[in-house]
Amino acid sequence: MSNAAHASGIDLAELDPETRPQDDLYRHVNGRWMDRTEIPSDKARYGSFAVLAENAEAAVRDIITGTPAPAAGEGAQTQADKVAALYASFMDTELADTLGAAPIAGVLNRVSKIASIPELITVVGDLERQGLGGFYGMYIDNDPGDPARYIVFVMQGGLGLPDESYYREDQFAEIREQYQAHIARMLELAGATEPDTTDACETPGETPSEHVAGLAYGLEQRIAATHWDKVASRDIQKMYNLRSFAELAELTPQLDWTAYLAAMGAPESALAEVVAAQPDAISGLAALLVEDELEAWKAWLTWAVVRGSASLLSQELSLANFEFYGTALTGAPEQRDRWRRGVSFVEGSMGEAVGQLYVERHFDENAKGAMDELVGHLIEAYRDSITGLAWMSPETRERALEKLNKFTPKIGYPVKWRDYSALAVDSGDLFGNSRRVSEYEFARELAKIGKPIDRDEWFMTPQTVNAYYNPGFNEIVFPAAILQPPFFDVTWDAATNFGAIGAVIGHEIGHGFDDQGSRYDGDGKLVDWWTEADRTAFEKLTGALIEQYNALSPEGADGQLVNGELTIGENIGDLSGLEIAWKAYLRSLGGAESPVIDGLTGAERFFLAWSQAWQQKSRPEETKRLLAIDPHSPNEFRCNQIVKNLAAFHEAFATKPGDALWLDEAERVSIW
User: Fold this and answer.
1) Which residue in 431, 405, 226, 146 sits closest to 312, CA to CA?
2) Strand arrangement of the beta sheet that strand 242-244 belongs to
3) According to the 3-state scheme, what is the secondary structure of 138-164?
4) Buried (b) or exposed (e) across 245-268, using 16+ Cβ within 10 A?
5) Where are the beta strands (DSSP E) in 314-425?
6) Is 350 within 8 Å of 82 (Cβ atoms)?
7) N or C: which end of the chain has fewer CB within 10 A?
8) What pLDDT score does 202 carry?
9) Region (Disordered): which ranges (predicted)?
10) Closest-CA residue to 552 (of 443, 648, 639, 473)
């Protein structure tokens, strides 16, 4: 990638001269933007990712509305027709308001008539196929112990709040009260006040909806008490619990899996072997499947149906649901525009159909070639770095390099597109469309069992502003929509591209070598390829990084601290990604001197680009919510805390003791 005649990619007018980069790189770059920017009323946070996502949303709306929707009842034939029909069904607010909660009345009536636990299990299984129920989180992926085959993962589930901590920690006491009131309000609006007409309120002055809400919430509390916390639930070695069908049945004797699978329309052979991720949480929920809990389960299922359908019902129900899940939980005061939610609905239903059109209209193929070159430099920089690691033995180093050699980059869009020909869509049937999409996806996923692994499959759409590392496939994936400013521009100088998208590439490669990704080999198999001494040395380094983050509290968090253990994987990705991106930039120069552009050295442009990529403002409610559940650290620390550990940053800005971002050399962490 040539450095000549390229823009720096850094807007000098945006830099805040009142904040020294040696004290706060994040606000030196983003402070002016933060001072003048109000978080949009429909957002809980706003920044670089959100701006690009909004742009992609607008582009997708133009694509969707470019084809007239077939009339209701006509049945869409082509993919473009189906996309248009899905959107039209969501945008028909007049019909939605006329129907109110009628689309789910039959389902709620069915739930109210459940007379036994075996019948409950059958109904929940049937509703799971339709996207309206389910005791557990269940999905299909390749088997960590045998990555050449697909297997079902059974995960803890059953909660309406974000995480088990919301049911027990003092800081969420007010949220718990609001949640119970919210359940009662939603049940009232949906006309689902009683799970059984014979059931009477037990507390004087309690309304039927409050009674049902209390039953549902109480059961969720009992389920939550068995859940693993977020830290335990990201430990792949603890989570990889292979069970035969007989062993799964023995773990959950109260749950008739044969009946459950039959109701889902799945063969028993689909669960011949499963990964029971959190065994005690899985058995803990099943232990509650007893007749004494039947009324609570009916209340729970009634609430699950209402909650899962609210966005598809009247505007009143949709808004009421947002007022808790949006405003109370994240602080966003206003619901997103209907058209934006319509775009999200279409993308969640036929994302690759939209993505194919998005790529044709908006993806610059030149970006793919430039990204290939960037990835190549990053891979080679990792190779150089791993080869020279002082803390790693030759034996483990050989396996690490072997894994690096097997990395598969995917850039822009899939080589083959998903086929939606089996999906039936009607522009006059929003709820039915959603149900049919769920059944289509259920059948598509189920069909994977027993088939060869499809390594061409993507797990993000091209119009998604994000990237990911998949340990089971040992691949790094960069959708088209992230390949634009402030992350990437083919006209930018190399230093800026390496500091932004280069560090993102490095971050995703780094996930292959973080505390969890490093437990998979180059073929995606969960196997211990480390010597004991090397793993100990690695954990000493990661432990020091955990301690750094455990001491941090972001603006707006009222002193609530970052959880260094929860965020360690992402922090390793950030640290390794930025450090290796810097080495890759130097490597790309081929020994030439880094040019000065707009008065900025290559090193300065590199770190300024890193900072502007994490530009974001967040509401206090959202900041606190993310601290509890998000494996990513707050953006200000993704910027500032990482650079404190890099010698190149200290050299670039001539930091010294007393500067806020100074960190003694002995305390700096360098892993990869």
Assistant:
1) 431
2) 137-143, 146-155, 273-276, 242-244
3) EEEEEECCEEEEEEEEEECCCCCCCCH
4) beebbebbeebbbeebbebbebee
5) 408-412
6) yes
7) N
8) 59
9) 1-23
10) 639
Query: How many residues are there in the chain?
Result: 672
Q: What pLDDT was estimated at residue 4?
A: 37
pLDDT at 73: 84
* Burial class of 599 by CB neighbour count within 10 A (0 to 12, 13 to 18, 19+): exposed
Helices (H) and strands (E) in the chain, counts: 27, 9
Predicted pLDDT at 1: 36
Predicted pLDDT of residue 197:
40
Strand, coil or helix: what is 136? coil
CA atoms 81, 83, 84, 86: torsion sign: positive
All residues at 6 or more sequence positions from 51 whose CB lies less than 8 Å from its CB, including other chains: none
Q: What is the pLDDT of residue 6?
A: 56
Superfamily of domain 12-59+372-418+452-667: Collagenase (Catalytic Domain) (3.40.390.10)
Query: From CA 379, how far away is CA 584, in angstroms rounded?
Result: 8
d(CA 553, CA 562): 6
Whole-number Å distance between alpha carbons of 369 and 358: 19
Stated as kind and residue range, the H or E segment containing 232 is none
Q: Which of 129, 135, 162, 155 is nearest to 219 (CA)?
A: 135
146-155 vs 273-276, strand pairing mode:
parallel
Q: Tell me the sheet residues that pair with 120.
A: none
Alpha-carbon separation of residue 457 from 154, 280, 464 (angstroms): 21, 32, 15
> What distance in Å separates the CA atoms of residue 179 and residue 416, rounded to the nearest whole number?
43
User: How far is Cα 108 from Cα 385, in angstroms, rounded to an integer?
Assistant: 59
Q: Domain residue spans in the chain?
A: 12-59+372-418+452-667, 102-335
Whether cis (ω within 30° of 0) applies to the bond prior to 486 is yes
Q: How far apart, in whole angstroms, are the C-alpha atoms of residue 518 and residue 193?
A: 50
For 518, 529, 535, 536, the CA distances from 666, given in Å and listed in that order, are 25, 29, 21, 19
- Which DSSP symbol is given to 566? T
Whole-Å CA distances, 3 to 117, 272, 311, 578:
68, 56, 49, 20
Q: What is the pTM of this model?
A: 0.93
Q: Which of these, 641, 639, 665, 662, lies nearest to 28 by C-alpha position?
A: 639
CA-based nearest residue to 648, from 671, 665, 667:
665
pLDDT of residue 297: 98
What is the three-class DSSP state of 281?
Answer: helix
Angstrom distance (rounded) from CA 282 to CA 252:
7
The CATH homologous superfamily of the domain defined by 102-335 = Neutral endopeptidase , domain2 (1.10.1380.10)
CA distance 341 to 617: 22
Report pLDDT for 285: 98
The three-class DSSP label of residue 273 is strand
> Rounded to the nearest 5°, which phi and psi values hold at 284?
-65, -40
Residues lower than pLDDT 50 in the chain: 1-5, 197-198
Q: CA 533: distance to chain centroid? A: 34
Phi and psi angles of residue 657, each rounded to the nearest 5 degrees, phi first: -55, 135
CA 32 distance to own-chain centroid: 29
Distance separating alpha carbons of residues 651 and 604, to the nearest angstrom? 10
The rounded distance, in Å, linking the Cα atoms of 481 and 465 is 5
